Amino acid sequence: MQPLVSVNRIRGALALLALWSLVPAPSALADGFDMKDGRFQGPVTVLVLNDAQVEALAKAPALKLTKEQSATLASAAGAGPSEVYVYTTIGGAEIQDCTCGAYNVAMRFSDRQIEVPHQYVVSDEEAARRKAEAEEE
């Protein structure tokens, strides 16, 4: 009586399965913000929000910075954007987002404070270029 499947086919299938198990899941390849206890790790600038900014963040995560805040970032991080995108960890929220192409991001860690990680700070011109590039894709 002939076997239904040859031994070589079984070996080949097992080898393929072993190789496939070495391929990481796409989520394992994604990077994320380097955070600990809801705060960015590495150099950051903490900015205090005014009443209008607190009110604006209640409606949308894009935050217009004051001229003084932009100047502070320019001095500390090398670029002074006019706007940042604000995540929040208030109430224990966790940020599970890929940092691929991230720029001008901030973390709101209290009602009136955000921190801006220096590694993601770019000029308005660079932000516009990246936005246009992403829209082309």
Structural topology:
Elements: H1 7-20, H2 26-29, E1 35-36, E2 39-40, E3 44-48, H3 51-57, E4 62-64, H4 67-77, E5 83-88, E6 105-110, E7 113-117, H5 124-136
Parallel strand pairs: 5-6
Antiparallel strand pairs: 1-2, 3-7, 4-5, 6-7
What does this entry look like structurally?
With 137 residues, the chain is an alpha+beta fold. The chain has one domain (27-136). The protein has 5 helices and 7 strands; from the N terminus they run ααβββαβαβββα. Strands 3-7-6-5-4 form a 5-stranded mixed sheet, with helices on one face. The chain is elongated, with a radius of gyration of 23 Å. Mean pLDDT is 81; it is low at 24-30.
Give the overall average pLDDT.
Answer: 81
Low-confidence stretches: 24-30
Shape: elongated
Structural class of the secondary structure composition?
A: alpha+beta
Assembly state (oligomeric): single chain
Tally of DSSP β-strands: 7
CA-CA gap between termini: 58 Å
Query: Considering DSSP H and I runs of 4 or more, what fraction of the residues is helical?
Result: 25-40%
Tell me the number of helical segments per DSSP (H or I, 4 or more residues long): 5
Major sheet size, sense and barrel closure: 5 strands, mixed
Beta-strand residue percentage: 15-25%
List keywords for this structure.
137 residues, alpha+beta, 5-stranded mixed sheet, two-stranded antiparallel sheet, elongated
TL;DR of this structure?
The protein has helices spanning 7-20, 26-29, 51-57, 67-77, 124-136; strands at 35-36, 39-40, 44-48, 62-64, 83-88, 105-110, 113-117. With 137 residues, the chain is α+β, with helices and mostly antiparallel strands.
